[in-house]
Amino acid sequence: MLRQGRSQPGKVQPVTSSDLWPRETAERYDAEERENSSAAVLEPTLTFLAELAGGGRALEFAIGTGRVGVPLRERGVPVVGIELSEHMAAVLRRKVDEDALPVVIGDMATTVVPGEFALVYLVYNTIANLLTQDEQVECFRNAARHLAPGGRFVVELGVPPLRFLPPGQIAVPFDVSERHLGFDTFDLVNQTLVSHHLTRDGDDGRYRRGSCRQRYAWPAELDLMARIAGLELERRVADWKGAPFGPASGKHVSVWRKPV
């Protein structure tokens, strides 16, 4: 059973700008993310999140097929999810039932679920799926309204790689391998990008093409969104293992706290 979410009265209307993942994409997602779903890769993420939850409840925005939420629950953290794509949530539901890990269908900027949480988190660049600044601000506000006093909001997001753009060019490759070619094209005026993927489909030489739109944001911009939502930056690191964040970091994991 997939429950439909409700929007916060008096707030923005349900977000519609995010690309909605269809059934075909949802069905092959776990296979394509097998490496990122391995125990070795996920261990630092799960440890980081479990420590912040501190035995309390956790809410995952854009929980998808449960790549993080399912193993985090297996660590003893009660997890609830919000997911825009019914197809992604249907794949998760094959792994764990509704009573064990409730999932509400709705967007992460306005959908409200019952109760308070010690932790709200967003992994894997997912906040960039909200394609306007207003929507990203509402995502922070939605996290804040779900947090108990002293609770944390965690976001994992890449640092925009604009320093790799030569003058006059708009594309930056992020993966060039035998089975996959990935590159981002940037619209510097509207602060958006499109991730393009050419993925080898089988062993007959065919490639499948896909793309997704995102809105990139700098760490300082996210800090301002957090302030608007009444949250305070607690720490920022370069990865889930806690490496120091610096000028050469390709991504960040940021933690904002709701004041007591």
Which helices and strands occur, and which strands form pairs?
Layout: E1 3-4, E2 6-7, H1 23-32, H2 39-53, E3 58-61, H3 69-74, E4 79-83, H4 86-93, E5 103-105, E6 111-112, E7 117-122, H5 133-146, E8 147-158, E9 171-176, E10 180-187, E11 192-200, E12 207-215, H6 219-228, E13 232-237, E14 251-257
Q: Would you tell me which CATH topology of the largest domain applies?
A: Rossmann fold
Q: Look at the structure and name the CATH superfamily of the largest domain.
A: Vaccinia Virus protein VP39
Q: How do the SSEs run, as a string of H and E? A: EEHHEHEHEEEHEEEEEHEE
Low-pLDDT runs: 7-12
CATH architecture of the largest domain: 3-Layer(aba) Sandwich
Q: Helicity range of the residues?
A: 10-25%
Protein name: Methyltransferase
Organism: Streptomyces daqingensis
Domain Methyltransferase: 59-151
Keywords: Methyltransferase, Transferase
